[in-house]
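[User] I wish I could look at a protein chain and see how it folds. I have put the entry right below:
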Amino acid sequence: MRERESMMTRMRQNDDDSTTIQWRECENAMAKMRKDDSRMTTMRQYDNTMATVR
């Protein structure tokens, strides 16, 4: 499932009890994963009651 909010794309993957959310910034209709001051990629992994942010 993909949802667009301004220039951001949120992707969700559901796997039994865990959920991974990836944020990607889209530029010119191509998703590029970048990690700097203005563009960051955040990955969150949920497992029961624990959350890991990378």
About this structure: Residues 1-7, 20-41 have pLDDT under 50 and may be disordered. The beta strands are 2-5, 8-15, 18-27, 30-32, 43-47, 50-53. The chain has one domain: 2-53.
